[in-house]
Design brief:
The chain is an alpha+beta fold. It contains seven helices and 24 strands. A four-stranded antiparallel beta sheet has the order 3-2-1-24. A four-stranded antiparallel beta sheet has the order 4-5-6-7, with no helix packed on it. A hairpin with a 4-residue loop joins strand 10 and strand 11 (about 190-195). The two termini are about 30 Å apart.
């Protein structure tokens, strides 16, 4: 409280635009406390315009103190700060059954499992908003023919900047035709878009106003082998495909795995060659397939046990999570969160250095993801 009083006193000698600039660069959890400083601060910090500007500043400048990390561990899903200076504050348990569908502007879309309705959650403000089921899901669920089948359901979450609305994509695959639907939070309704032409991976990534999934031809090729990147634009609600970079053809598709992700707001693709390395490619210019370039190759620190090594290499192929200013890359390596330094080819444990494994065979693909902390409200 004494610090807040001192800030209040010193603010009399600062122009308002300087005060606003300082507040824009402050962590969301600090801003919640700063509301107590004065009525003017409370009014400014509580305004929707300030919340939007705060997210834009944090995202553009990659202020690590304004970013969090959500990830699975051996027993619970947790979140922590990305700022090294406050890592000692530790982790906060979320839920033992936490399926992360994606993050956008401080909100995390998750569900208990693949067959429960999605929930939107803002860790900074602790606001929660449930999403009702789509008509496409209910139709397939209630169908006598489909009742005997296990529905394959995936979600995506993103922001439509043209309508200033948040949207949830649901893709239901009952084993026959695959249906894509979209939910508008502001209008509070579901709309069926079209039949999805591809089989998609669980996880989507928001880049350039569109959600992206790893995709392959339906019922063809190993599921781990991607043929393209499928995208759905959040504004136009249209879809299309992007080509992947050329992988190392010396490796069989049965001995590799492809994943996509985001690094510094750019689409990236990682090729995991089980007994060798992980190649990470970045699309420098969005939509230009010729702009793919190999960003880094991360060697596998192989274990002595052959069976354990096979499990690690096959299952752990999550894309890099974060690129720090010093060039180090935050990623999952042998069930640990580590920082990889490509300059000297070294790894170091990153706090919290917990075992991410739930079991050898379950949930090893649950993605850790960075999200920007925000005060944005969806009410």
């Amino acid at each position: 409280m004494e610090q807040l009083i001192n800030v209040k006193r010193s603010s009399y000698h600062l122009p308002q635009e300087i005060i606003t600039e300082i507040l824009m660069r402050s962590p969301a959890k600090s801003l919640l406390r700063f509301k107590c400083v004065s009525k003017s601060w409370f009014s400014e910090i509580s305004s929707p315009g300030f919340a939007k500007s705060h997210v834009k500043v944090s995202s553009k400048n990659k202020i690590t103190s304004n970013y969090g990390l959500v990830f699975p561990t051996a027993t619970v899903a947790c979140r922590c700060s990305l700022d090294e200076e406050v890592q000692a504050q530790g982790i906060i348990p979320i839920d033992s059954d936490f399926h992360n569908w994606g993050c956008c502007n401080g909100w995390i879309c998750f569900s208990k499992d693949r067959h429960t309705h999605p929930v939107l959650w803002n860790p900074s403000t602790r606001k929660v908003k449930g999403i009702r089921r789509s008509p496409a899901y209910l139709e397939n669920r209630n169908s006598e023919r489909e009742r005997r089948l296990k529905l394959d359901i995936i979600y995506g979450f993103g922001y439509d900047e043209f309508t200033d609305d948040y949207k949830v994509i649901e893709i239901v695959d009952p084993g026959s035709k695959c249906t894509a639907s979209i939910y508008n939070l502001r209008k509070n309704y579901w709309k069926i878009l079209w039949d999805c032409p591809k089989s998609l991976d669980d996880y989507s990534f928001l880049v350039n106003g569109a959600l992206h999934w790893k995709a392959n031809h339906k019922h063809k090729l190993p599921r781990n082998f991607a043929t393209s990147i499928f995208w759905i634009n959040m504004s136009t609600e249209t879809y299309g495909e992007l080509g992947l970079p050329e992988h190392d053809h010396k490796h069989s598709i049965t001995n590799m795995r492809t994943r996509i992700g985001v690094l510094r707001d750019c689409l990236c693709a990682s090729f995991n060659y089980f007994y060798d390395r992980v190649d990470v490619w970045i699309m420098k210019e969005y939509g230009a397939e010729e702009s793919w370039y190999k960003f880094v190759s991360v060697p596998h620190n192989l274990c002595n046990d052959k069976f354990t090594r096979l499990v690690f290499m096959q299952r752990l192929s999550t894309p890099p999570v974060w690129l720090f200013e010093n060039g180090e890359i935050l990623l999952v390596h042998e069930l640990k969160m580590v920082c990889y330094n490509p300059r000297n080819n070294t790894f170091k444990r990153w706090f919290p250095s917990r075992d991410l494994r739930k079991s050898y065979w379950d949930n090893l693909d649950d993605r850790p993801e960075c999200y920007v902390e925000s005060l944005i409200s969806l009410d």
